[in-house]
DNA sequence: TTATAAACGAGACGGTACGTCTTGTCTTATG
DNA sequence: CATAAGACAAGACGTACCGTCTCGTTTATAA
C-alpha cells in the first residue's frame, strides 16, 4: 500500500548484482507455490536466499516488482510454437503453449496475484495489460504466414475459455477442450476470409 | 497461513448478531473497492464498523470466510433473467447479468481475491468451484424451456471470454462483444440439436 | 485497576449462595498454587468451578476480595496453640503455627500477592495490616497466662525472621531456626520483666 | 505463563541500544510506583518511553527480566557503608542502607513483585536468592575488619525484622527499631566470640 | 595498486497488523 | 421474571512483517 522510497536499483552490469538477483528469483520461484503469494514475505525470502531483507528492497522496492520479474523472466515463456499457414494448427499449438506456461506453479501464482492486485495497483494493471499484448502480438506473429491478423475481441475469444477453465473452474485443460475452443473460434474468425481456404 | 481456532460462530438467530453481521458486511462492501483486498484489514474494518476486532473474529474466523459471505450474499446475485425458449436471447441475457454482477466493485475484488487464494487455500478453491456450479445450474435452469442442457465445457466456452475480458484484458465488455461470444458459442452448441430451430 | 461497579453481593444467609461460594473458594485454593496468582483468572476459575463468570463477579467484585477470603477463611488459620505461662514454649508454638499456616500453598500465594498489591491498593494494604493485627492479638492472648504483653516492635522482631526466611531467602524454616529466633527474641523482651522468672 | 521465545538481546555495546535501554529503565522507574507492577504494561511503558512495544520485547523478553534490571541497576544499590571493626556500628549502618534501598518506590515494588512471582517463576526465585546472597556477601565484607562472618541464619535474623516491618506491617522503620534489632541480634551472634570485646 | 563507489550483512527501530486472551458490561432467550 | 448463555467493547498479550536507518565489510571498477 505504502509507496516505498525509490532509491536507485543496483547496477545490473555488476556481476555480483546479477548473481544475487538470479539466486533470489530462483528461490522465489521455488517458494511461491509452497507458501503462496501471501506467504512469500521478504523476511522468508531473505532467509531462504541467504540475503538481507535490505538487499531485497534494493532490488525490488515493491513486492509487485518482484512478481513482474518472476512473470517476465518466466522459465520458458519464450517457447512459442513455430509459425505456420494452417490457422487451426497454429491456434491449437499456441493455446497449448499458453496452457504449458500457466501450468508452471510459480507463474500461475504470480499471474493470479498480479491480476487480483490490478484493480488497486496501477502498476499491476499496466503490467497485466502489457503481458496480454505481448502474447497477442506473438500470436499474430505466428499467424503471419497464414495472412491472418487477430483483433482484440478475437484474441480474447480464443484464450478466454482456456484461462477460465484453469483459474475459475479449476479444472484441467484437455486437448479435447482446446480442440473445441479452436473449432468454435474458427467459425466466427474473419467470416469469408482466407481462413476458409484451409477447410 | 496459520489455521485459526474454529470456535463456534455467533448464533445467527440472535437479532443482535444479525445487526452486527449486516452492518459489518455493508461496511466491508464499501471498503473493499477503496482499499483493496490487501488493505481490508480487520483492524480497519473494525474501526470503520465501530466494532471490536474480536467481534469480527467471532463472526468470520478467517478473512476468506468474510469474502465468501461478501460473494454469496452479493447485492443482486439473485437477479437472473427470465427463462425462455430462445437460446440466443437467454444466453445473451445471462451473460449480461454476469457482467452486471462482476461489475459491482466489491464483488469483483472479492472474486479475484478468492481466485488468487484458491491455489493455496482449499476452502477458497472449493468455494470458487461451488460458485461456478451454482451459476452453471442457474443457466441450465433458464434454458430448460428451450430443451437445452449445457455441459461443463460449453459452459466455460460461454463465460470464459467475458471474464477474461474483464479480469485479464481489463477492458469493457460491450454488448457487441457479448453478441460475438454468443454467436460463436451457438455454432458448436449441440450440433444438430433443437438450437437449429431458432436460426 | 478499574473499580468495578459495586452491585450488591449475594445474601450470605442463602444456603445456595453458601454452597456456590464454598465450592468456588475450594477450587480457587486448588488452582492458586497450580497457576499462580496471575493465572487465576475469573475465566479459568469459572470454568473449573462450573459457574458463570457473572456469578464470580457477584460474589467477589474484585479479585482482591477473593484473595482476602482465601486468606481469612484459611483452612487451618484458627489452629492456634494452647495458651501457657512458659513464654518460650508459647512463642515457639506460635511460630510453628505461623510456619504451618504459610506452608499451605494457596495461603502462601495469596499472602504474597496481597502484599505485592498493598503498595497501590489501599484495600490490600488495610487487609494486610488487619491480618497482622489479628495474629498479634492472638499471640498476646496466648501469652496472657504468662502475664506478658508484646509490643508492635517485639511482635515484628519475633515473626520477621521466619517470614523473611520463607519468602525472601526461600529456604526452609527448621525447628533449630525457630529456636534461635525465640532465644534471641527473649533476651530483649521486657528486660527485667516477669520473663526472667522462667529462665 | 507462556515462555516467550528467547531471541538474542540487543548488543549492549551499541550506543543506540544503551540509550534506548537507559531511557526505558528510567521511565519504568518513574512509572512503577505510579501504576503498580500490574499496571506497568508494555503498552503503557512503550508509549511513555516513546518506544515501540517490540523494542521492549527485544530488550526484555519477559517482564520479569525488566524487573530484574530495575532491581540490579537500582539507583543507589552500591552505596554500602564503610567497613569497620565495630560490629554494632557496621550492622546498624548496613540495616540503614537496606532501609534506604527499599525505600525507593520502584525498588520496593519491583522486589515485592518478584517475590510474589518467585513461587511460580523459577527465574524470579533464582534472582531473589541471588540478590539475597549478594547483600549477605556485602555484609560479610563490611564485617571483615571485625573478624566476624555471618551465617545464613544470622543474616536472616538481622534483616528479617526490618523487611517484615516495611513490607508486612507496612510501618516505618525507625532508628530505634533498628537499634532494637541490632541489640537483640548481637546477643546471639557468635556466643563467646570477638563480639563481646565491643560491649 | 590503490582508491572509490557500490553492494551487501547485520541488526535496531517505529509502525501496523495479527490472532488470542481476560475483563466488566449488557443483551437475549429460556425454563 | 430471574438466570444462563454469550455477544460485545476495551485493551493487553506476544509475534510477525514492513520499510527505514545506521553501521561496518566486502567486492568490483577506475584512477
Description:
The structure is a homotetramer of 199-residue chains. The first copy, chain A, has nine helices and no strands. Chain A has 199 residues and is mainly alpha-helical. The termini of chain A are far apart. Chains A and B meet through helix 1, helix 6, helix 7, helix 8 and helix 9 of A and helix 1, helix 6, helix 7, helix 8 and helix 9 of B. Chain B binds a DNA duplex (31 and 31 nucleotides) through helix 1, helix 2 and helix 3. Chains A, B, C, D: Residues 18-78 form the HTH tetR-type domain.
Overall tally of structural domains of chain A: 2
Task: Assign the structural class of chain A, choosing from mainly alpha, mainly beta, alpha/beta, alpha+beta, or little secondary structure.
Answer: mainly alpha
- Global geometry of chain A: elongated
Q: Per DSSP, what share of the residues of chain A sits in E-state strands of 2 or more residues?
A: under 5%
Pattern of helices and strands of chain A? HHHHHHHHH
Number of helices of chain A: 9
Annotated CATH topology of the largest domain in chain A: Tetracycline Repressor, domain 2
CATH architecture of the largest domain in chain A: Orthogonal Bundle
